[in-house]
Amino acid sequence: MTVLKKFCRKYPAAVNHFSPPKSYFTGGFEAPLSFIPENVICWVAVNESCEVASQMHSRFCLSIALKNPTVKYVEGIPFRLKEDEAILIFPTQIHYKKNDPGILEQTMLYFVFSLPPEADLKALEPLRNRVCRLDDRARELLVKMMAIVYTKDKDHYPLFPLVLAHLLILMLSGRKTSGESFFEGGSRTFQNAVGYIRQHYQSPDICLKTVADAIGISPSRLTTVFREQSLGISVGRYIANLKFYRSMELLSTTDMTIGEIARFCGYGNSFSFARRFKQLHPEHISPSRYRFLVTRAGIRSPGR
After folding, report:
1. CATH for the 187-296 domain, from 3.40.50.300, 1.10.10.60, 1.10.150.130, 3.10.20.340
2. Labelling 209: which of 123, 129, 233, 236 has CA 20 to 30 A away?
3. Using an 8 Å Cβ cutoff, are 135 and 170 in contact?
4. CA distances (Å), 19 to each of 7, 14, 23, 269, in order?
5. Global pTM?
6. Taking the chain (304 residues) in consecutive chunks of 10 residues, what is each chunk's mean pLDDT?
7. What is the rounded distance in angstroms from the CA atom of residue 188 to the CA atom of residue 174?
């Protein structure tokens, strides 16, 4: 059956209502996103441990509860995810997961992705720290993406980022929040501390005391609150991780020299940067070695 016959069967005589445009240059269809996610990774986690350790990375992570509820902590704020509810974790946000007591079987779906350098991150800001209830259209897209991964349908691999972009658009257009965040003791203080660190992590002098002074509490109190809300990560470790992940991004996406990256991320010099990078990298490699490996693997996109 031809396209026209299929369309007219569903919408009789509707073709006559497709009037020519008044202008070929304005008034066209637009979407909330002007970019497509890149390097998308998808997996399903079944029966993760009841408490997943804190994580922080430089990519977006869309977390979706498929079976049974869970609680996702994002920078110390707990969000309850029921089945078919999702939350988007932004780059460098501390996050971890706790299952409800008594739940023995739980399934999560994850999409981890990056955005092109020209992307305007503000487009996704409405999704920050929000739980989104997925409607029928969104669920259909998820089933489609899971099928592509499961069947290893390589013919449809190029469509995967487009379908994910469509899912994000649906989440933005709906933004039906169920389970708004509920603050527990100290989390507002934690948020203030994290906000200050994000704005000033490039300063070589940033430390526990400077952060505590900036938000008006004692270092000991900040230490207690931070460890409680981040599942054991200290202020110093958070600052170090933020500098580390930012340096990894710059090594992978720019032509900046090692010295320039060291100064940009707030390290005293190239030597201290290399020493700290080796300490934090899982394979304890140097910044120059890391850049070489990502370049050889075709991951690096210099000149951004």
Report:
1. 1.10.10.60
2. 129
3. yes
4. 16, 11, 12, 64
5. 0.65
6. 77 75 68 83 78 65 92 78 92 76 80 86 85 92 92 89 94 60 53 88 93 95 86 85 86 90 93 94 91 76 53
7. 27
Q: What are the phi and psi torsion angles at 198 (to 5°)? A: -60, -35
Given the candidates 3.40.47.10, 2.60.120.10, 2.60.40.10, 1.25.40.10, the CATH classification of the domain at 38-174 is 2.60.120.10
Q: Exposed, middle or buried, 60 (CB in 10 Å: 0-12/13-18/19+)?
A: buried
In this predicted structure, what is the pLDDT of residue 304? 44
What pLDDT score was predicted for residue 119? 83
* CATH 2.60.120.10 residue spans of the chain: 38-174
Per the CB < 8 A criterion, the answer to whether 119 and 212 are in contact is no
pLDDT of residue 73: 81
pLDDT value of position 185: 34
Q: Which three-class secondary structure state does DSSP give residue 27?
A: coil
Q: Tokens 């209830």 belong to which residue?
A: 133
